[in-house]
Write a structure and sequence with these properties.
28% helix; 5 helices; five-stranded antiparallel sheet; single chain; four-stranded antiparallel sheet; 32% strand; alpha+beta
């Protein structure tokens, strides 16, 4: 009979062997590598997070908005001074013109003061962030020394290779020219893209009124071409009884309202006051959804009178036919008023059209009348906003908190519908409560959670 003797073995790396008893052995492992500095990694993550929270697109846009306001204000001042020099009669006219110039100078000084303080803040933020990034870079280089298996280095090499491969693949593929649809009656061509934002401002009431609308008069009177208007839902985020006017974009940005409020009614809400954020200004008249009615109201800013236009029977109102997305609906957006090169339009929905968008032309005159009407096949509660541009209806939908998509169009000339527009809007806030197109400068004016944002529309 053969006897087998089992001998316990230990494999030794950089170890010391100890045999506490006869039938077993134990090994003590001594790690020659330095301990990984988890505290430094945590500090680096915190610093990177602070940099991300401090440097935001809003800060850059604030400076751009101030510069844009100054850029538009200075030529206007120069023009007014030249007119004063040419037409000064040394009497009442000269006094009034001089007062206008003084007011403009005051606005420009306020704008420059805000620009100076904002620039200083940005310089301090830039210097502080630069120092933090230098320290962060040194810390990351030190941490990479602990990557003995070079995992990070290989990941970086893979990313570079993937980028080169994508560039090579794209270079080999020919660029396909997009199919150009009929242009309808649009003098600019078909909407191709929306860029910006160009303006991003909280105005004089930052964070106070979430719902509202703003923009320019699409048919301004002579001398008021540079004016802007603002309507804020001041009662329960649903109603308003006045429109606020600004003599220029810079005045709106710095919060200097001249000539100020034009009141529709002393009570709010009451008959003929504004219901919902979808309002427009056209030819010195404000168009909006009349309070508690399925009607369009027109408030003449000069005569302070209100006329109404009854919409077809079955029109949904009082928050029964709102704009919506998957998570929420925007209250009291049953009627959307829009302007373009040809005038005023109203977008709504009716029970007999099963909730699909209906578009009607509002004809000017006394009294207002409802012109030609078009019926679409897009369901209104799948839409977040609409606007008109050169006789073409465009509809948007919510993609996420950072992006809105112009996905649909209806050409009133050809009757052609498209569901594949695919133009995206970069949002500065999650919700766009109103969206107005200005034919004066081909801009989209959006009101987003109390902020006023504008975008440039590009046409083919």
């Amino acid at each position: 009979m053969k006897m087998h003797v089992l001998v316990p073995l230990c494999v030794l790396f950089t170890l010391t062997q100890q045999v506490p008893s006869r039938d077993r052995c134990a090994c003590e492992l001594t790690n020659t590598e330095k301990a990984f500095p988890h505290d430094k990694l945590s500090t680096a993550e915190d610093n990177a997070s602070k940099c991300n929270s401090n440097i935001t697109p809003q800060k850059t846009l604030e400076l751009e908005s101030l510069l844009l306001g100054l850029e538009k204000r200075l030529p206007q001042l120069q023009e007014d001074v030249s007119m004063l020099e040419k037409e000064d009669d040394g009497d009442l006219y000269g006094v009034i013109s001089l007062q206008v110039v003084e007011n403009e100078l005051l606005e420009i000084k306020q704008l420059i003061s805000r620009l100076r303080s904002t620039t200083l803040e940005h310089q301090l933020l830039t210097n502080d962030t630069t120092n933090k990034l230098e320290v962060l870079g040194e810390e990351m280089q030190e941490l990479e020394t602990y990557d003995t298996m070079q995992v990070v280095k290989r990941q970086q090499d893979n990313l570079r290779l993937k980028k080169d491969l994508d560039q090579c693949r794209n270079g080999l593929q020919a660029t396909v020219q997009p199919t150009q649809p009929p242009q309808g009656n649009c003098p600019h061509g078909w909407l191709r893209n929306v860029t910006g934002p160009r303006v991003y401002t909280a105005g004089e009431y930052p964070g106070s009124y979430n719902y509202g609308a703003w923009g320019r008069d699409s048919k301004p009177e002579e001398g008021k071409e540079s004016w802007y208007w603002l309507v804020m839902m001041t009662s329960s985020n649903k109603y308003s009884n006045y429109v606020r006017l600004y003599s220029s974009l810079s005045a709106l940005i710095v919060g200097e309202s001249r000539p100020g409020n034009v009141q529709i009614s002393p009570s709010n809400p009451t008959t003929n006051t504004i219901q919902g954020p979808n309002t427009v200004l056209y030819g010195e008249a404000l168009y909006y959804n009349c309070y508690n009615q399925d009607s369009v109201c027109r408030f003449n800013l000069t005569t302070k009178t209100v006329t109404t236009l009854q919409l077809p029977k079955g029109t949904r109102y009082n928050s029964k036919g709102n704009f919506c997305h998957l998570d929420a609906c925007y209250p009291f957006t049953d009627l959307d008023l829009a302007t373009d090169e040809s005038g005023v339009w109203v977008i709504y929905t009716t029970t007999q059209d099963f909730g699909n968008l209906v578009l009607s032309k509002v004809e000017e005159g006394e009294p207002m009348t409802l012109g030609q009407t078009w019926y679409t096949s897009v369901y209104k509660q799948a839409v977040t906003n609409t606007f008109m541009a050169c006789g073409v209806l465009y509809a948007t939908r919510y993609v996420n908190k950072d992006m809105e998509e112009i996905f649909y169009s209806f050409d009133t000339t050809t009757g052609m519908e498209r569901f594949n527009i695919g133009v995206f809007i970069n949002k500065m806030s999650a919700n766009i409560y109103s969206l107005n197109y200005s034919p004066v400068d081909q801009m989209l004016h959006a009101y987003c959670d109390s902020y006023m944002v504008s975008y440039k529309v590009l046409f083919l």
